Every structure is written in C-alpha cells, then in structure tokens.
Amino acid sequence: EEQADDNNSTECSEPGAMDLKFTSSRKYISISVPSKSQAMSPHIKSVDDVVVLGMNLSKFSKPAQFFICVSGVFMFYLIYGYLQELIFSVEGFKPFGWYLTLVQFGFYSIFGLIELQLIQDKRRRIPGKTYMIIAFLTVGTMGLSNTSLGYLNYPTQVIFKCCKLIPVMIGGVFIQGKRYNIVDVSAALCMSLGLIWFTLADSTVAPNFNLTGVILISLALCADAVIGNVQEKAMKLHNGSNSEMVLYSYSIGFVYILFGLTCTSGLSPAVTFCSKHPVQTYGYAFLFSLTGYFGISFVLALIKIFGALLAVTVTTGRKAMTIVLSFLFFAKPFTLQYVWSGLLVVFGIFLNVYSKNMDKIKLPSLLGLWKESVEESKSRTLSQTV
C-alpha cells in the first residue's frame, strides 16, 4: 500500500495542469505552475521581449544587443541628420521649414498607423484632450527646430538640442520650486557657456547668421523640455503604447500645421516649389522621416535594456559624430572655437548624467587622489632606500 502511494505521488508531481488523484484512503492534489511559454498565448509577446523593427533582441546575448542598438542609433540618426541638412541645402527651400514638418508629420502618422495595426490591442487609452496638448508641443518642437535651419548652421542647431537641461531646470525652479545640487548647477553653467561660445563663433564665421534662428531653436528647446514630462505622465497614467502616442499626436499635429499654413498662405508656394523638385523634397523627406522613426525605436530599446545612462552616452556620441560629418560633407566655415565650446557642452552633459546616477558612478575625490599620490611617493622612496 505504501508503494502504491509513492507511485501515485510520483505521477502527480510530474509537470502539467492541476491533477486530482483519489485512492481508497487518501487524496493527493498536485499543482504545477506552467512555464511562461505555456501560460501565454502564442499571439502575445512576453513583457520581457524587446522587439525592434520585427526583430526580437531578447534572443541575443547582451553584447550582441548592445552592438545592434548602437549600430541602429548611429546608422539611422546619422542618415537622418544628413538628409535634414541636405534638404535645406536645396536652393530656395529654406523658407519652407514648416511645410517639411507637415510632410514629416504625415509620414510619421502613416508609420504609426501601420505599427498600430500590427499589435493586438488597438484601443486608444489616452484622452483626446491630452493628445491635443501633446500635438501642440510636438508641433512647436519639430516645426521650430526645422524652421531654425533656415537661419542657423546645422552644427549650431545640434548643440542647442544637447542643452535641454537648461529650460528644464529653469522651469523646475520657477514652476515647481525645485532645488538643485551643485553638480546640476555646474552642468547648466557649462552648457550655457558652451552655447554662448558656440553661438559667438557661428556669428563670427558665418555670414548668414541670424538671431531669429537662435530664438526659434530656443523656443523649440523649451517645448521639447515640456513635452517629455507630459508624454511620460500620460503614458504611465493611461498605460498607452508608443505606437498609439505616435499616431494620434502626429496626426493631430498634422492638422494643426495644415490649418496654420492655409491661414498664412504658406501652403501654396511650398507645394509649387516642391512639385518642381520632387526627389530633393518629397523623396528625401520620406527617407528623412523613415530613418527618424526607426532611430527612436532603437533609442527606446537601448533605454529599456541598458538604462538611460548608457543611452544618453550613446546619443551624445551620435550628436558629436553628426556635427563632424556636417563639417565634412557640407562646405561651411570652421574655427577651433567650435571644438572647445562643443567639448564644454559635452562636459555639461556628463555632469548632468553623473548627477542623476551618483550612486552608480563613483568618481575619485581630490583628497583621495592626493592621499594615493602621497602613499605612492612614500613607497617609491622606501623601495629606493632598500
């Protein structure tokens, strides 16, 4: 009888669903938890899966994931920056920055719609009023940024984009009454000085420098600083997806820009000009929008797998490479003041990242370095004496 009981318990312990085994004297209940692949529907991906452009990065090792993400960020965003400057290098296109934003928003809406159709849950979770605010900020960010290229050199625009921390800190002080530590203040000062120095160099060597471009990119920077907080709050509060955010914010923004261009009579001249140069305008704009859409997918994957610290480091390196390629591929005046001011901005970015990750990054203190040098000199003197 004991042997039969042991056999029954062995049978019940095998993996499977809930099993009930009855004998003449005892009742055995065996409960087994199915694996993740058995429990989930084959049509639903695991929450741990990171899928970019239909490729599941979770199947690769960590070094392979890092290489794929970094390669995607550099490849798509470098092409994105090159095409953006290439479009504005077309003679006569500089006044049509808002029309380029309209075309870009149209392509982004189509890409978001296609991506939304490929996922299982197609419901809109975020309220329409919230999307109207996000769309307005998105129009301000991208429209003013594209329009500023009609007045500024591309490297100057990229340097301004690196300094989102400045309006964020100013808004935090005056709106929310925040207080920042010495590292954050030092980062903002470094970025501010680097911006001023870079802008002065641009105004000195560039004959077409216009203060209007500085005002436009500064307003775009302020909108960019606000939109991140609004998007993050909306997605966390209503559990919205990235594809939903892209579709509705850019489609509503498309309506905003179309209405604005129609009211200001700026639509007809832009359409007439672009119809004469379809490849240099619509063709490049399609590739420009496609690479930007793909690039942000790799950035989000990099943040999810490796964290924001490494993602900021990679994107900062990408922006530096974009500036270098801009000077190589497009003829423009150059001065060493660009280098020193750019390095000052990069140092400010490093201080900002260090401030947010002080518990992960342990930098040696000056006192510790001095003690190490004293101990090293003592040991060297002792060894010489011996």
From TrEMBL:
It holds the Pfam family UAA. The chain crosses the membrane at residues 64-84, 96-119, 131-152, 158-175, 182-200, 206-227, 247-270, 282-302, 309-331, 337-354. It comes from the Eukaryota. Keywords: Membrane, Transmembrane, Transmembrane helix, Transport. It is found in: Membrane. It is a multi-pass membrane protein. Belongs to the nucleotide-sugar transporter family. SLC35B subfamily. This is Adenosine 3'-phospho 5'-phosphosulfate transporter 2. The lineage of its organism: Eukaryota, Metazoa, Chordata, Craniata, Vertebrata. The gene is Slc35b3.
